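Dear colleagues,

I hope this message finds you well. In preparation for our joint manuscript, I am sending the DNA replication licensing factor MCM2 (Hibiscus trionum) sequence together with its predicted structure, so that both groups work from identical material. I would be grateful if you could confirm receipt.
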Amino acid sequence: MYRCVGFFVHNVLEMLRDERIVFVGDSMSRTQWESLICLLMTGVEDNKSVYEVNGNKITKRIRLPALAFQITSNFPHCTQDDDDDDDDDQGEFEMYLVQGKLREWVTRDEVHCFIFEKFSDFILTYVNPKNQHGDIEYVRLINEMVSANKCSLEIDYKQFIFVHPNIAICLAEAPQSVLEVMEDVAQRVVFDLHPNYRNIHQKIYVRITNFPIYDQIWDLRQIHLNNLVRIGGVVTRCSGVFPQLQQVKYDCNKCGAILGPFLQNSYSEVNVGSCPECQSKGPFTVNIEQTVYRNYQKLTLQESPGTVPAGRLPRYKEVILLNDLIDCAHPGEEIEVTGIYTNNFDMSLNTKNGFPVFATVIKANYVTKKQDLFSAYKLTQEDKEDIERLAKDPQIGERIIKSIAPSIYGHEDIKTAIALAMFGGQEKNVEGKHRLCGDINVLLLGDPGTAKSQFLKYVEKTGQRAVYTTGKGASAVGLTAAVHKDLVTREWTLEGGALVLADKGICLIDEFDKMNDQDRVSIHEAMEQQSISISKAGIVTSLQARCSVIAAANPIGGRYDSSKTFSQNVELTDPIVSRFGILCVVKDVVDPVTDEMLAQSVVDGHFRSQPKGANMDDKAFSESQEETQASAGLTDSKILSQELLRKYLTYAKLNVFPRFHEKDMAKLTKVYADLRKESSRGQGVPIAVRHIESMI
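The corresponding structure tokens are as follows:
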């Protein structure tokens, strides 16, 4: 039973303890985390912080003038005898006696020894309650790590906080010091269990997984410095791999003595004062054989396109990868990084600003790729039941089409094409022989004022990982990939463009006809093979661009001429037109009935956007509003809410994999033959093999 007044930390603790997976990755905000720390570590006695736990409990004790807190965990997987708890209670209480700042307290030798002992016990005794065989969790993981010839041991933060919540908090607030102790423990345990493994790997690293605090890149501030953070984004740039100096030894040129090792940091260069053997002050040379290096790589992580608010540029943060984390991500991939948010000395910033300024970077501890690229919309069990119930509706296809851009009147054909592009198809890989893309490309060609740009903006807000660009404002390298020279290393690096950033999403290109021919040619490969090949500045590689392309263009002369063929109406070459699976022609035809209904829909939209009660009393306004909505058909119960439509899209792309039947094969073959025969004698677009792949 919890008794907690004025705090919502009860929900946080319950979430961690019960492991209720509501969100993929299960995270909390930093505000909740700070409230949890406040409950566990605050030294202020007031009514708000009074709480009592019976059974599985957290107990807080306060001693003035110093602060002391004690946390006892009696969870099912961490059982101890009562006598042992009483004997160790006083010793643990002294260890939790925090004096001064937490980061200074964890650097003490006695605290290091205490963390060393507790973490050793955790690795060697922890049993996962979900493991029916009762195996020791991390002994099993160590054996798997050794079998795979790896040097990183992954520690689940949620499991660790169950057993040692106090040390887990110290890990989040002072990760540098605590991780050093944890890696010493892991190294000793691994080499004790597998003595010969030290001949393969001299160092074992601890990787923290399932860290519950999730921050956005734009939220990182000074308060996060030297804390453990977890952020997500898209990799836009990736440097090469360099050997970074870690421990250096010097040879005395006079007596031949070896000096060191000296630990090299990123702020200053190691300066040797004098030789302890001959007292000489030099000269010294680096002992190349005994000097220790480590792998170093730098990534640029940018906010995901779907998370950036309108009107603001996406922000980015540099991520440092060390040791075995190198080459774990490439440009265009969406990843999550758990690491230490720290500052990095940059002389160029100091020179530019005229006063000391430190650049901030994230030293990665754990990197994982987002396999679920649609995790922005979390699906609960109720959502899945609602979606499955909707899927059984025989009119679900019509309802989805009506729900696409409901504020735009008419254009059912365009809405159908956009719905097909947003749902996408099934990617085919025929036994490694050749790959057929599962994305549908759409071209909207029509007269001005037919809501083409509005459709693209709607997809940008509704679709998953949608990137919007315009023809005149986009160049070939802006759409594909650019090559930049790093100012520090003087090395050429790749930076992904719009098509790379939209990987497994949708790339929206407005004013497609205004692009230069050279720029349009650059996206041929991306639309057909869904990859971008780069051969510049000595870099020969290929980037993934698995995305649908929805483009909008105007006809030649501004208006579509029905007396001419499609190719004569658009200033696009046949190769680029053939790469679009769906072509939508929108003509502004004068029709009094249709024009009146369209005008009524526009007027009703402006009428509903008025402030309530601005020109009339509220009652009269609400009555007239209901009448106008009914006349416009906007109260149609068949229209799905936009949130439900997003969830439906997410569920369909993740869980629905359509298959062919023999009858479908015969129908598709006949339809393709008829279309090709008709196109040969008509004024339409020539039908090619690409189009039958689009139909599939």
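For the figure legend, we might mention the following. DSSP finds 25 helices and 23 strands in the chain. Confidence is low (pLDDT under 50) at residues 1-26, 39-83, 372-376, 628-635.

With kind regards,
E.M.
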